[in-house]
Write a structure and sequence with these properties.
The complex is a heterodimer.
Chain A (H helix, E strand, L loop, with lengths): L1 E2 L1 H7 L4 H8 L3 H8 L7 H11 L3 H4 E2 L4
Helix pairs in contact in A: 2-3
Chain B lengths: L10 H32 L5 H28 L2 H30 L9 H23 L1
Classes of the chains: A mainly alpha, B mainly alpha.
């Protein structure tokens, strides 16, 4: 699953640590999601969507065609 | 920055608190196990009632340690929980397979020694630590 977390974070000048605090996860988890090594759960994806005022599908995209 | 129902404690604070509690209860459990192991011979001359009391204390502290460990795991974030789950799964599997294989070999007189529980725990602990380390590297 691809995501735009890194871009959205950069647009707001947030560090991975800032985003981690906002989402109540570790910085390592933010990094793992941004580098597509770990897919977040649905609740965490919705939490990110609420944080950025976007829809989940505007942040996370399924890679299956 | 927008906030999404900010938790009362941050993940870091929660984890630190839970790890400290787990450390204290694990220490208490080890101490109660030591009391159960050396008490009968050195402290109360094999008096059964004292041994049963020490056993009850050990089991109660052990139960609390398990509950505190569960709380610690629930306090982690989802990636940390996955790392722990993978490591515990591998450690449990290695312990089960190694224990059963060595027991079978011992029963078949292929090997002359029998594995002690403490040796099995040591193997499982080493496998668990290694698996946690590898998982952390994998997701880093």
């Amino acid at each position: 699953m691809k995501n735009r977390l890194k871009v959205l974070r950069a647009e707001r000048n947030w560090t991975q640590a800032d985003l981690a605090v906002a989402l109540d996860v570790s910085r390592q988890t933010v990094n793992a999601i941004e580098t597509n090594k770990f897919d977040p759960s649905l609740p965490l994806a919705f939490k990110a969507a609420r944080l950025f005022n976007l829809r989940v599908e505007e942040i996370f995209q399924d890679e299956v065609e | 920055m927008n906030t999404v129902n900010p938790p009362k404690k941050t993940l870091q604070q929660r984890t630190k608190y839970n790890v400290q509690r787990l450390f204290i209860w694990t220490l208490a459990w080890v101490a109660s196990l030591a009391l159960l192991a050396i008490g009968p011979r050195n402290l109360w001359a094999f008096e059964a009632s004292f041994s049963l009391a020490a056993l009850a204390l050990n089991l109660l502290i052990g139960l609390k340690m398990i509950l505190v460990n569960k709380q610690h795991l629930l306090g982690l974030d989802e990636l940390q929980r996955r790392v722990q789950l993978e490591a515990m799964g591998i450690a449990l599997g290695v312990g089960l397979v190694t224990g059963c294989a060595l027991e079978a070999l011992s029963n078949a007189n292929v090997i002359s020694f029998t594995m002690d529980v403490s040796q099995l725990i040591m193997i499982m602990s080493l496998v668990y630590i290694t698996a946690v380390f590898i998982s952390i590297r994998k997701y880093a």
